[in-house]
Design goal:
Length: about 650
């Protein structure tokens, strides 16, 4: 082995996944590696470039990965020596989704895919490293154990779990595959494929799959003259077939293709070659599946021109959520992506209204409140929003307000067509009460927070869960500052919120049975929203504001942060965080099953284990209640 290759092998063995290979294996790889010298600002690959035949390891210097979004370049990763980049050719056939550029003079090793693939297929540790990193869009999954080397995401999304869900969605594939017997001849199969516009045929024996013939087989083995047209199909088929179960995910399908170095998978009833054929998955199906990833959905939202377009995209989000739940993706991860897509839909609805009405007469913000304000809106629940416009001269106020009321009514009407029901309590920007100037909103929050007992009729705690959807960020920050100023040393306000948090009806009866609804239309059902989730939501908000936790509206994340800030009560907060996820999962499953808001659960449809799990999730509520009673004076508002 030459000295250069030996030095490269010595370098690679220090970093994952290469540390799972023997020095002999690394030496074989090193002899085929291309050494690239990049000067500062040289580009290794860029967005929409065709995929290279190799992936890369940074040897010296720094490589930046970035994307272009809304005409702005966003830095995703800074890659240092030992970091692996450009793995996309392993897993996808579409072009690069990021740009890799040297930020200083650098040396990069290009490792040919063809050279490395056999070592991946034969080494499960290497395979698992690459797949786990790519499928979850994380840094090196072993990073907690070692900081040596990272595997840099090149899917075109920041490393914040915004796109990992696409790899767990179910695939659409050919569910009516062509099949034939082992006695068929190549010519007949070629005619059969041509007549049916198919690129593959599954070979069966006693209705069980034993091989597959693809268009490539026909091209390379028959068309080249390697085999005659009357040859038995057995001679040219690929065997054994690689089989998978019917609900296989994108990530799992990629894994199987990579591991077995094949371009097609045979779907069978039980996932083995001992059961009937149900379909065929091709590499093309994987490419199509990636067109439904969250990033693509958001791009489609930006191009949407009607409520009908947005409704179609929201339906695809529901499918994505449902598939992710089925694949046991953590609910917190599902929340991340769902909230981004929901927010994009809301923003586009506002933009469409502006396109119809003309440019706004003043700067403004559209804010989500309630579940979307907390980034917890997984189901198609009702709308909650407010609109704040900048202060204008008195003689212009009426015209400006009227414009924004029209804007809000058009927007809420659009969202209703998408599937978001109107708020039954009227907490929407289309209500003149919740569409007003910054000064009027400042007075509103001042009154709510400084004299809560006198203004309790229209005070809802959801007005303190705010998410900026559209508009001038400075107006949003001004309201945040008003809230922060008024909550400082405001024991009266917190006592009011504390008392309000304890007003919800108990989820269990005196005899520890579920407290069920007594009136139609939900008679004998359990109100999981009001009796179980809202007390946790209210408690998390109360303590988050009390401890001035900034930038976190999500209930689960609030509890996690509170466990750090108020460490003496960390167990209570962590128990509540876990309970919130469990209860949310119950509501989500109910909503997906019945295409509803999931608020009311039919207890009789739960099995014994599910009932026990639900009841156990209610236990931390008592701990939270005691913590509220200990920290706040509640009698004056009782």
């Amino acid at each position: 082995m030459n000295t250069i290759a030996e030095n490269i092998a010595d370098f690679l063995k220090e970093y994952p996944p290469f540390d799972n290979l023997t020095f002999q294996e690394l030496s074989a790889i090193a002899t085929n590696i291309r050494v690239l010298d990049l000067e500062k600002n040289d580009t290794l690959f860029q967005i929409n470039d065709k995929l290279h035949d190799c992936f890369y390891v940074v040897a010296t210097g720094t490589i930046h990965l970035s994307v272009i979004a809304d005409a702005e370049e966003t830095l995703l990763n800074k890659c240092h020596p030992g970091d692996v980049i450009g793995l996309r050719p392993f897993f996808a056939k579409n072009n690069y989704m990021t740009t890799a550029k040297a930020r200083e003079d650098s040396i990069v090793y290009g490792i040919p895919i063809a050279t490395f693939r056999p070592f991946v297929a034969n080494n499960p540790d290497v395979l698992n490293f690459l797949l786990e990193s790519f499928a979850t869009n994380t840094w090196n999954p072993k990073e907690k154990e070692s900081l040596r080397g990272k595997l840099a995401n090149d899917n075109g999304f920041p490393i914040d779990q915004k796109s990992e869900m696409q790899y767990f969605q179910s695939l659409t594939y050919n569910r009516s595959p062509l099949t034939t017997t082992i006695n068929a001849v190549a010519k007949d199969i070629a005619i059969l494929m041509t007549e049916n516009l198919s690129t593959n045929v599954v070979i069966c024996d006693n209705q069980l799959p034993i091989g597959i013939v693809t268009h490539t087989d026909m091209s390379t083995k028959i068309a080249t003259g390697q085999f005659p047209l009357d040859i038995s199909i057995k001679a040219i088929m690929s065997s054994p077939v690689v089989t998978v179960v019917e609900n296989v995910s994108l990530a799992e399908a990629q894994l199987m293709m990579l591991k077995n170095n094949v371009t097609h998978l045979c779907v069978t009833l039980d996932g083995t070659d001992k059961s009937a054929v149900k379909g065929v998955i091709s590499e093309h199906d994987l490419i199509i599946a990636q067109a439904n990833n969250p990033g693509v959905l958001i791009k489609e939202i930006k191009r949407a021109s009607s409520a009908k377009d947005l409704k179609h995209i929201r339906e695809r989000l529901t499918e994505l959520i449902q598939n992710s739940v089925h694949k046991n993706i953590p609910l917190s991860n599902i929340n991340n992506i769902a909230s981004e897509i929901n927010s994009a839909i809301l923003k586009r609805a506002v933009e469409l209204s502006i396109l119809e009405l003309g440019s706004p007469l003043a700067r403004f913000v559209w804010l989500s409140i309630g579940s979307q304000g907390r980034k917890e809106q997984l189901l198609l629940t009702d709308q909650d929003s407010i609109l704040i416009f900048e202060d204008v001269l008195p003689d212009k106020y009426r015209d400006v307000r009227d414009y924004f009321l029209k804007l809000a009514k058009r927007t809420t009407a659009t969202l209703e067509k998408v599937g978001y029901e109107l708020c039954p309590n009227g907490h929407m920007a289309s209500n003149i009460i919740w569409c007003k100037s910054l000064t009027d909103w400042t007075k509103q929050y001042d009154n709510w927070m400084n004299t809560p007992g006198e203004n309790s009729n229209d005070l809802s705690s959801i007005f303190f869960d705010l998410e900026l959807v559209f508009g001038e960020k400075k107006i949003f920050e001004a309201i945040e500052n008003v809230i922060e100023k008024n909550q400082a040393h405001n024991s009266l306000f917190f006592d009011f919120l504390g008392n309000d948090a304890l007003r919800k009806n108990s989820p269990l009866t005196f005899f520890k049975k579920f407290a069920l609804e007594e009136e139609e239309p939900n008679k004998d059902k359990f109100d999981i929203k009001t009796r179980a989730l809202m007390p946790l939501i209210d408690g998390a908000r109360l303590f988050a504001m009390h401890f001035n936790v900034k930038g976190l509206n999500n209930t689960y994340l609030r509890f996690k942060q509170l466990a750090i800030i108020d460490s003496k009560n960390s167990d209570t907060y962590l128990n509540c965080a876990e309970a919130f996820l469990i209860l949310s999962k119950f509501r989500l499953n109910e909503g997906l099953k019945n295409e509803s808001s999931g608020q009311y659960i039919n207890i009789n449809e739960l099995n014994k284990l599910e009932k026990e799990k639900l009841k156990n999730a209610l236990a931390p509520m008592k701990e939270l209640e005691e913590l509220i009673k200990t920290n706040f004076k509640l009698t004056q508002f009782s």
